[in-house]
């Protein structure tokens, strides 16, 4: 825990763990107030946890004319807060105000109008995301949903409602504090009020007089039902202050019969999920459960709520699980969570953008819970609708070059390297021939034995999605490949036209030109991917014969390798923005085999020589038999005496015949 104080327009921090004071840096203009989430506020001071978000500002000024500072490290340093996608307060007239929103879908409507007679302080109770407490001396309002609905706080005495609104009570609020289910306020008339923060209705009761008030008194909850009242004690001989700390046990105080407080109807409300953070990735679900034990003879109604229903949807069911030893019924509450987009029950205009990660709080509470339920706080779980960091992808490797005996794994591990021909790669990934061959060491430790691919067969990698050590599914989303060393001896089976593109598709050339660093491994990803099948994009299809370089998805696009045997090391990136919020990518290797060696003689010369050989063979086939018949005729001449003379005469005979 740390303590933040505003002194003379500056913010100071005291860290209890090291017992040291620090002055916050980054604040250039004087501020008068600080606030934040998960904080205990008293006066111009906050008790916060070190990682909480803090705002510093001057109260009562127009938003456009003041500077708001924001800290994400508990108040150690601040920077100017940019007004973007935030909640704003609109003053309709001198008596009415309402909240307005700049983020879809809340920007379609204004919040409910409420009385607005003075500058209101805003208190954010810790653990209740979206819950607001708006207060001034004569005003006390609460909102369970970031200002969309503004409710008054009732003043009760026992089961009776004395005042529907605190503003009807003739007192002035001096100090106020809250935790995740309790509210306490001290008035200038030296009265102390205590109540509970409810999502349906909030109420407070007046506690017995305690003689607590002083102009410097402040309130603070140190635990459930434990309220601290701090008062400074000046010392005339020393400038430092001591503090008088009065501890009030609210649970014991509420047992006073004069307060007529009803007994709590809940004996147990618990869940092993309470206080944890969970992640729901795109197309994923989350199942949680809560155990509920009501007091015998009562039937409390549980409330299950999310702070951001535009992004996160839920379905809850309750059933009887078993009985306790004393006869009470134990109920089980099952909660199923999924992105609102995928429930199919909400109007598309209601849901927020599915491409954008969001955060939400799941809260489980009891409707109209009695004030006496001091230690029965709401159960709260933080739900991140975003990237599940436990997910990863791998490329299937059922047939490797080692298992088929083409490569030796022992050899690959012994600092093995291979050569990429200069006419086959471009280090700048532009498809131009290089000036020299490239010697590449094979990283067996990272890639293992390469997958085996036959060069004459169109090929596409099979991608598996894993979470932790469990296989989830085969990935059918769109993805892209890039050879890490710039090899370009492959092409794609589809063109922009045959892939059914409505606009010119992206390719590696256009993506790398737009990337700040062309050698960045995955400069083409789900963030900058633009589908050529999107009918809302009106750009033209200027080059329909250009290669379509996206694999997976709705098309059956594949890789076709040139006549080259050897290694390829690919980087693979899922670019489909609707598959996962994670940047899913991996690196793998393949070995292409079965290609005939390249011809040393050009194909045109080979064809000419082949045709010439065929014609020569035909001519010889005709010439040799005819010569043989002529030879047989000459051999019958009787004047031949010996072999030589017979040959001469045969030649003469042939000459005579011609």
From TrEMBL:
<keyword id="KW-0732">Signal</keyword>
<keyword id="KW-1133">Transmembrane helix</keyword>
<keyword id="KW-0221">Differentiation</keyword>
<keyword id="KW-0472">Membrane</keyword>
<dbReference type="GO" id="GO:0030317">
    <property type="term" value="P:flagellated sperm motility"/>
</dbReference>
<keyword id="KW-0744">Spermatogenesis</keyword>
<dbReference type="Pfam" id="PF23747">
    <property type="entry name" value="Ig-like_CATSPERD"/>
</dbReference>
<feature type="domain" description="CATSPERD/E C-terminal">
    <location>
        <begin position="415"/>
        <end position="629"/>
    </location>
</feature>
<keyword id="KW-0282">Flagellum</keyword>
<keyword id="KW-1015">Disulfide bond</keyword>
<keyword id="KW-1003">Cell membrane</keyword>
<dbReference type="InterPro" id="IPR053814">
    <property type="entry name" value="CATSPERD/E_C"/>
</dbReference>
<dbReference type="Pfam" id="PF22850">
    <property type="entry name" value="CATSPERD-E_C"/>
</dbReference>
<protein>
    <recommendedName>
        <fullName>Cation channel sperm-associated auxiliary subunit delta</fullName>
    </recommendedName>
</protein>
<keyword id="KW-0325">Glycoprotein</keyword>
<keyword id="KW-0969">Cilium</keyword>
<dbReference type="GO" id="GO:0036128">
    <property type="term" value="C:CatSper complex"/>
</dbReference>
<comment type="function">
    <text>Auxiliary component of the CatSper complex, a complex involved in sperm cell hyperactivation. Sperm cell hyperactivation is needed for sperm motility which is essential late in the preparation of sperm for fertilization. Required for CATSPER1 stability before intraflagellar transport and/or incorporation of the CatSper complex channel into the flagellar membrane.</text>
</comment>
<keyword id="KW-0966">Cell projection</keyword>
<dbReference type="InterPro" id="IPR028751">
    <property type="entry name" value="CATSPERD/E"/>
</dbReference>
<dbReference type="GO" id="GO:0048240">
    <property type="term" value="P:sperm capacitation"/>
</dbReference>
<keyword id="KW-0217">Developmental protein</keyword>
<comment type="similarity">
    <text>Belongs to the CATSPERD family.</text>
</comment>
<feature type="transmembrane region" description="Helical">
    <location>
        <begin position="605"/>
        <end position="625"/>
    </location>
</feature>
<dbReference type="InterPro" id="IPR055451">
    <property type="entry name" value="Ig-like_CATSPERD"/>
</dbReference>
<dbReference type="GO" id="GO:0097228">
    <property type="term" value="C:sperm principal piece"/>
</dbReference>
<dbReference type="InterPro" id="IPR053813">
    <property type="entry name" value="CATSPERD_beta-prop"/>
</dbReference>
<dbReference type="Pfam" id="PF15020">
    <property type="entry name" value="Beta-prop_CATSPERD"/>
</dbReference>
<feature type="domain" description="CATSPERD Ig-like">
    <location>
        <begin position="266"/>
        <end position="385"/>
    </location>
</feature>
<feature type="domain" description="CATSPERD beta-propeller">
    <location>
        <begin position="2"/>
        <end position="246"/>
    </location>
</feature>
<keyword id="KW-0812">Transmembrane</keyword>
């Amino acid at each position: 825990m740390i303590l933040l104080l505003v002194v003379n327009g500056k913010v100071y921090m005291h860290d209890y763990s090291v017992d040291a004071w620090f002055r916050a840096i980054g604040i250039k203009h004087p501020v008068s107030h600080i606030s934040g989430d998960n904080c205990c506020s008293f006066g111009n001071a906050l008790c916060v946890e070190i990682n909480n978000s803090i705002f510093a500002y001057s109260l009562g000024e127009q938003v456009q004319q003041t500077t708001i500072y924001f800290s994400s490290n508990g108040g150690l340093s601040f920077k100017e807060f940019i007004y973007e996608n935030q909640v704003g307060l609109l003053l309709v007239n001198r008596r009415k105000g309402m909240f307005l929103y700049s983020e879809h879908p809340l920007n379609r409507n204004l919040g409910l109008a409420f009385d607005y007679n003075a500058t209101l302080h805003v208190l954010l109770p810790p653990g209740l995301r979206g819950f607001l407490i708006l207060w001034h001396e004569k005003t006390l309002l609460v909102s369970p949903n970031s200002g969309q609905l503004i409710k008054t706080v009732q003043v009760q005495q026992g089961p009776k409602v004395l005042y529907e609104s605190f503003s009807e009570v003739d007192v002035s609020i001096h100090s106020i504090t809250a935790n995740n289910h309790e509210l306490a306020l001290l008035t200038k008339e030296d009265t102390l009020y205590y109540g509970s923060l409810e999502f349906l209705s909030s109420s407070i009761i007046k506690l017995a007089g305690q003689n607590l008030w002083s102009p410097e008194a402040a309130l603070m909850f140190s635990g459930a039902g434990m309220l601290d009242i701090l008062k400074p004690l000046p010392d005339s001989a020393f400038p430092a202050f001591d503090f008088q700390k009065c501890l009030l046990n609210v649970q014991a105080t509420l047992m006073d019969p004069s307060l007529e407080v009803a007994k709590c109807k809940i004996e147990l409300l618990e869940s092993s999920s309470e206080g944890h953070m969970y992640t729901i990735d795109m197309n994923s679900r989350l199942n949680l459960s809560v155990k509920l034990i009501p007091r015998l003879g009562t039937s409390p109604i549980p409330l299950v709520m999310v702070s951001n229903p535009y992004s996160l949807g839920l379905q809850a069911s309750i059933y009887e699980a078993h009985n306790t030893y004393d006869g009470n019924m134990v109920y089980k509450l099952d909660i199923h969570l999924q992105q609102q987009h995928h429930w199919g029950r909400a109007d598309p205009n209601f849901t927020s953008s599915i491409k954008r990660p969001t955060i939400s709080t799941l809260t489980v509470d009891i409707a109209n819970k009695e004030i006496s339920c001091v230690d029965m706080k709401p159960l709260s779980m933080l739900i991140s609708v975003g990237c599940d960091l436990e997910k990863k992808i791998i490329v299937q490797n059922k047939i490797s070059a080692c298992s088929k005996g083409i490569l030796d794994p022992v050899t690959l591990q012994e600092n093995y390297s291979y050569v990429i021909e200069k006419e086959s790669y471009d280090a700048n990934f532009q498809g131009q021939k290089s000036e020299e061959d490239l010697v590449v060491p094979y990283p067996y430790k990272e890639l293992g034995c390469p997958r085996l691919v036959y060069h004459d067969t169109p090929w596409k990698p099979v991608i598996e999605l894993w979470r932790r050590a469990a296989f989830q599914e085969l990935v059918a989303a769109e993805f892209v490949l890039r050879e890490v060393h710039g090899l370009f001896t492959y092409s794609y089976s589809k063109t922009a036209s045959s892939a059914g593109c409505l606009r010119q598709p992206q390719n590696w050339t256009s993506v790398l030109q737009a990337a700040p660093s062309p050698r960045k491994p995955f400069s083409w990803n789900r963030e900058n991917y633009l589908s050529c099948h999107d009918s809302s994009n009106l750009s033209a299809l200027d080059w329909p014969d250009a290669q379509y370089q996206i694999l997976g998805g709705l098309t059956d696009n594949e890789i076709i390798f040139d006549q080259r045997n050897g290694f390829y090391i690919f980087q693979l990136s899922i670019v489909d923005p609707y598959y996962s919020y994670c940047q899913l990518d991996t690196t793998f290797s393949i070995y292409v085999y079965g290609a005939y060696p390249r011809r040393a003689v050009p194909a045109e010369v080979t064809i000419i020589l082949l045709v010439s050989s065929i014609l020569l063979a035909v001519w010889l086939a005709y010439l040799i038999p005819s010569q043989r018949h002529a030879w047989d005729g000459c051999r019958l001449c009787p004047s031949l005496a010996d072999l030589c003379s017979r040959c001469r005469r045969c030649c003469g005979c042939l000459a005579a015949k011609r």
